[in-house]
Design brief:
By secondary structure, the chain is an alpha+beta fold. Helices cover 16% and strands 40% of the residues. The protein has one helix and six strands; from the N terminus they run ββββββα. The structure holds zinc ion.
Length: 83
């Protein structure tokens, strides 16, 4: 959820849309993301992917994570439940 103030301390020092990365082989940066499986095959299943973005408070350090495509993920989630 996007806000202009920190929900913990009320500060307005909010850093929005910050990439959340993991360091892979050779120090390569990879965006952390969530995956929801959309099909139930043995091989080559389809996934809906959502890259995590962080909103960080520059006063207390609270971090909130969100994804850009919640609707696509929700649709994929519903499909998974009906498999
Ligand atoms: Zn804060």
């Amino acid at each position: 959820m996007k806000t202009d103030t920190c929900r913990i301390c009320g500060s307005n020092k909010i850093m929005d849309n910050v990439r959340v990365v993991d360091r892979g082989h050779g120090d390569a940066k990879k965006d952390l993301s969530v995956y929801i499986q959309k099909t139930d095959k043995r091989f080559f299943n389809k996934f809906e992917k959502g890259e995590l973005k962080a909103q960080i408070c520059g006063s207390c350090g609270n971090v909130d994570l969100s994804v850009k495509n919640p609707h696509e993920l929700w649709d994929a989630y519903l499909k998974t439940k009906s498999l």
